[in-house]
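Example 4.3 (complexes with small molecules)
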Amino acid sequence: MSTLFRDARLADGRVRDVRTESGRIAEVAASIDADADRVVDADGRLLLPGAIDAHVHFREPGHGHKETWTTGSQSAAAGGVTTVVDQPNTTPPTVSGAAFDEKASLAEASVVDYGINGGVTPDWDPESLFDRPLFALGEVFLADSTGDMGIEADRFADAVERAAARDVVVTVHAEDADLFDDSARDRDAGGVGRDADADVWSQFRSPEAEAAAVERAVEVGAETGGEIHIAHTSTPEGVDAAVAGGATCEVTPHHLFLSREDATELGTYGRMNPPLRGEERRAGLWDRLVDGDVDIVATDHAPHTVEEKEAGLWDAPSGVPGVETMLPLLLERARRDEISYERVRDVTAANVADAFDLPNKGRVREGCDADLVLVDPENAREIRGDDLHSKCGWTPFEGRTGVFPDLTMVRGRVVFDGDSVTDEPIGENVRR
Ligand SMILES: NC(=O)N[C@@H](CC(=O)O)C(=O)O
Ligand SMILES: [Zn+2]
Ligand SMILES: [Zn+2]
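Answer. The structure with N-carbamoyl-L-aspartate bound is encoded below.
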């Protein structure tokens, strides 16, 4: 199967013809005179490398009522994400070879490419787990979050040492529960769902708790020679500590585009770990994304049902969906000239491929997988939960503006055509 994109605008502004053949990018040139099974007149539209989302929770096995590999990966495809990385806090948690195998067979339903991470708990089985094609080890939880997989410091150091010996990156959920502000509980007015006061959650899981945990994680990395990646860094202090410690870090769309000022309206739909931060910290994160300190945007796509979120602040689950709106939200900022298209390309694809050693992905370059996203950069529209493909059916970005893809391709096969997503499994474990 071959495709010829004519007059496509690359992220750096160059207009090129791009030909794909048997799942790879065969040619990128000013003009290609060749026939193809499919010819797409890009007509100056933007052609980006498919986004690689290093942090999703697709919830199977164990929590298919929230999301499945089919619905989560369809949501990814409709948002221009062509590779996802699933986290280990499922049931069973992905902490043994057998648990990895159970998840791997479910992941075969994916319509985009995927990686499966291993996890760490007191009863993990590193021997069998590291015997599997792990994408990375993590998120390793330094504090409890969904799935209560928080571990102690000595187990963390042991896990990083084992991963370092196998050249496996360790991604870290960096919050130190000892620094949570328990007095916040007394300030909870007791609302339910959207009437809950999510700002109390931001007071409880304090910014200091993140910065301290990031410092500890990068110290352990330095001591053991482990490669540390800080997940969902939510504060400028956390980013600065990661950068100072030689670790890569990611930020999420909700920490870039939402803040405690949105907490009142969102209620428990704005409860996630780490929590929303104040406007100043949010702006500080955005500055670090634009100027290069932050390497990667990853969504921490963490869907929960509306029924589960319609609870009190301390009873509702933490997490928000995001895989379908990450690229659209960033492309809207690029449309407004607040970030360059090259930076959007780097933080959603090229840098992710580099950080996690995916040499055949992340770029519109000859020889790379034909993971491509075609976008009309001016075609902005309102984000509505009803239009999205996640099984959870809601989004914290309701009413915001995004620029969605006209076409998404994974290894040369169209998985989204601007209207409908495929239900044909095409995904492949990118760690064969
Ligand atoms: N971020 C969240 O608030 N929740 C995530 C877990 C996690 O990333 O901590 C989830 O899986 O629900
Ligand atoms: Zn986490
Ligand atoms: Zn997560």
